[in-house]
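Open question from group meeting: does this chain pack into something compact, or does most of it stay loose? Before anyone orders reagents, we agreed to write out a predicted structure and look at it together. Recording both the input and the output here so the notebook holds the full record.
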Amino acid sequence: MHIHTFNAPFSFSRTAKYIGRYENAQTHAVSDEQFCQVLADDAGYFLIEVTPHGESAVRAEIKVGRATDARLAQVRHYLQRTFGCDNELLRFYEFAETNQYLKKWTRDYCGLRLVGIHSLWECLSWSIIGQQVSVASAFSTRSRLALYCGAVVEWQDKIYEGFPTSEAVLSLTPDELRECGLSRQKGEYLQGLALELQLGYLRESLRTESDPAGIRRRLIQLRGVGPWSVEYAMMRVHGDSDACPFEDIGLRNAIAREYGLGRQASIEETKRITESWRPYRGYATFYIWYTLLSNP
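Structure tokens returned:
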């Protein structure tokens, strides 16, 4: 069991709403009171439950699987990455007071955390799975992939889905990948990414390196990873507060609605509008995304 305490505004319910935004996401039974997450290590998959602990902390407990020291360390990393940095959030809130739009969103959704992804492999894989399909379709493919690879844990008569390891994805045949909902090209991209990890050309430790430009140069070299995927990974994994996926359809739709454009914002308009969000375009993007979730 681990307690993670916050020193900045924190809303469990708002953050959990984003985490559980689709029923077939890897987290299940999401509510204002808890959510569950499947994690993986060399010994297999295990399940943690995350619940509020007072108004400014969360409690995480391993419900299925042995609570080894290595797993508890992984749980701590998961919480840190999922809920982000207190100091960075406070600086964003201070900056938001200078912009009428940011000020409105941060006041409306105070305590919402920029939900991070703890695994570079999972994040980049997710960006490949989601290319040129709806978000709901991408979640469905991801769910089938988890079930096919056995990346599941059962607890209290429910099945909880995790994300398959790179080893599990490499073991699948092209036909099996297609049965999961992946096109031939996406299957090749996904297994190519898994191979990069297995051979050591791509390292999970890249997420903690201090040279954002260098990380971007490394990621864009990967097959199937374009500018959107790079910025998404920089925002969700590396924690770059100024990362901005200009091409994102959700971002462009949200800008259209919040700024009253009457139509989807173009990429050039998105770049121009988000320029006023520097150096917190990542946080601002996440908050404007949340407007779509709260006011569909």
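Observations to bring back to the group:
The chain has three domains: 2-85, 120-238, 249-294.
The chain has a mean pLDDT of 92.
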